[in-house]
Amino acid sequence: MEGTKRTPPCPRVPADRARLEDRMIAETVCSAASAAGLGIAVVAAYRKRFLSAARIAAYALVPIGLVMTGVVGWLSDTAFSPTAWAGFGLLGVAWLLFAGTRAVERRRGGTRAERKAARGGRTDAVAPAASAPSLGAGAGPAARPAAAPRSSGSSDDFSDIEAILKKHGI
Predict the structure, then answer these.
(1) Which residues contact 145 (CB under 8 A, 6 or more apart)?
(2) Distance CA 169, CA 163 (A)
(3) How far apart (Å, rounded) are the C-alpha atoms in residues 159 and 146?
(4) CA 45 → CA 31, 61, 147, distances in Å?
(5) Most confident stretch, 18-22, 141-145, 146-150, 162-166
(6) What is the pLDDT of residues 81-118, one digit of tens each?
(7) Deepest of 19, 67, 87, 109, by most Cβ within 10 A of its Cβ?
(8) How far is 147 from 164, CA to CA, in rounded Å?
């Protein structure tokens, strides 16, 4: 066993170096995406599609802008952090609980206080000073006024509108 050399175990990479590598990878991917988008924009401009070329160039500049502002660094630190993912998970659970309770509340017809107030208000259909119920069973449809015959005069131009308004009690 003289000819075999034992290599020392690989030293652990410090956390700062790992974050730096993650950030460098993310910045490289964003730069490549921007370069590819700008290349597609040049091809679109060559084909005389200037409006779409300008729109593609605008989209292509977004990733490199995010790198330059530091958003990508923050995202790469967040994306590879188990604590951040646990936080996102808790936010998702909170959102699901909130949305679920709102859906049930809508299905039931409001909050408990609103339902209680609605039940309490429906027991009486009588106005406080009235001697008889204000809402009762109707005797039948109200008598409709007979439609006046139409004439060609200008004063009867609004007769149809008047008939509709009278029909609705206005």
Answers:
(1) 163, 166
(2) 10
(3) 12
(4) 21, 16, 69
(5) 162-166
(6) 788 888 888 888 889 888 888 888 888 776 677 777 77
(7) 67
(8) 10
CA distance 117 to 120: 5
How far is the C-alpha of 96 from the C-alpha of 89, rounded, in Å? 11
Q: Is 2 helix (H, G, I), strand (E, B) or coil?
A: coil
Q: Provide the 10 A C-beta neighbour count for residue 66.
A: 18
Residue 43 has pLDDT above 90, yes or no: yes
Would you call 1 exposed, middle or buried from its count of C-beta atoms within 10 A (0-12, 13-18, 19+)?
exposed
Does residue 27 carry a pLDDT above 80?
yes
Per-residue pLDDT at 35: 94
Cα distances from 12 to residues 5, 8, 9, 18, 81, in angstroms, run 21, 12, 9, 10, 18
Sequence-ordered list of residues with C-beta below 8 angstroms from that of 41, at least 6 positions apart, any chain:
53, 54, 56, 57, 60
Q: What is the pTM of this model?
A: 0.41
